[in-house]
Predict the 3D structure of the following.
Amino acid sequence: MQLKDKVSIITGGASGFGAAGALRFAQVGSAVVVADLNEELEWVGASRPAERRRLD
């Protein structure tokens, strides 16, 4: 994938296929923004502490 130095926005990224995709994108060098409606789950693939914001 040619995602190095790109920004990727992953919806549904807190679990399942979305989380797997977000992790893979981050592994190849993309900056990843994870969005999900499930506030109970935490995405653990972050390489640095994430800033959480609720977007209504």
Observations:
- Helices lie at 16-27.
- Strands lie at 7-11, 31-35.
- The longest helix spans residues 16-27.
- DSSP finds one helix and two strands in the chain.
